[in-house]
Amino acid sequence: MTPDTVMMIGRQALEMALMLAAPMLLVALMIGLLVGVFQAATQINEMTLSFIPKLLGTAAVLLIAGPWMLKELVGYTRQLIESIPSLVG
């Protein structure tokens, strides 16, 4: 296995991780920003106020995008497993 192949596999793995994590992270970021603006406007300084909306938003994204995420992950894993003979030989 050449170093270029190892780098390619690593790059693909990082791209897959970013692609799968991005929807949930972006929703949590947006909800956190909205709750932060609400807290600043109302001067409510409760640290746990943003936890439940973030949890619900992340769960909603997981329910909506979950099948797509699973399909992408299974496709990547299948591609990786099928490429093992060419990597070894």
Secondary-structure blueprint:
Blueprint (H helix, E strand, L loop, with lengths): L2 H40 L8 H32 L1 H5 L1
In short:
The chain is mainly α and 89 residues long. It has three helices and no strands.
Q: What can you tell me about this protein's structure?
A:
The protein is built from three helices and no strands. The mean pLDDT is 92. The chain is elongated and about 65 Å long. The N and C termini lie close together (8 Å). It has 89 residues and is mainly alpha-helical. Helix 1 (3-42) packs antiparallel against helix 2 (51-82). The longest helix is centred in the N-terminal third of the chain and has 40 residues, at 3-42.
Mean pLDDT: 92
Provide the structure class: mainly alpha
Q: What distance lies between the first and last C-alpha atoms, to the nearest angstrom?
A: 8 Å
Radius of gyration: 19 Å
Secondary-structure element order, N to C: HHH
Structure summary, number of beta strands:
0
Keywords:
about 90 residues
